[in-house]
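User: Can you predict the 3D structure for this chain?
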Amino acid sequence: MKIVKCNGIDVSDERFENVVRGAAEEIAAGNLIVYPTETVYGIGADIFNEVAVKNVFIAKKRPFDMALSVAVSDKKMMETIAVLDENADKLIKAFLPGPLTIIMEKKKDVPDMVTAMSKKVGVRMPDHPAAMGIVKRTGPIVATSANFHSHPDATEIDSAVNDLGTNISMYIDAGPSKLKKPSTIVWLMNGEVEIIRQGAITIKNIEEVLNA
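Assistant: Here is the predicted structure, written as structure tokens:
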């Protein structure tokens, strides 16, 4: 277990690149990392490595019937794991990267363990340079809060470390989370929209974009 600081390091600095590269290498090796986002700290793992995904559930003490969200770096990557519709396009254009998780029909290659056997997958694009840098190198990774199931979300690295300890190979400390609240979750189904959880983006914000 190692804790690496990147708080205050410019993205053009070689030290930032080293942190991102190291995190990507940990994920490629099948390990778990904790990485910063604009909302709360998250656990990252390769979604196509089912052993790593299983270890995420174990580390969080999370029931296996509760799906995990997925982080991507851009729309093109999102299209490799989910089926986008017109509403998804509007939300992506308006809010991503940003604190929004969109639940959509998943592509067949997404392991059932990630989605708890559901045919839907929740996808987000974190607005944080470290998170985006990692995902650009690894492809889609798990995006679930870095805490024990039912514990408060980790908005600082110490909280994540206290819960998850040595279950995580690498912690990236980028200081306190900017928004300190989770992403808003929107479920898109057959042209309909349902707000599952209001987080940093309000229901009014969502409705204004979809009705424009």
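Helices lie at 14-28, 50-60, 75-78, 86-95, 112-115, 129-138, 157-164, 203-210. The chain has eight helices and eleven strands.
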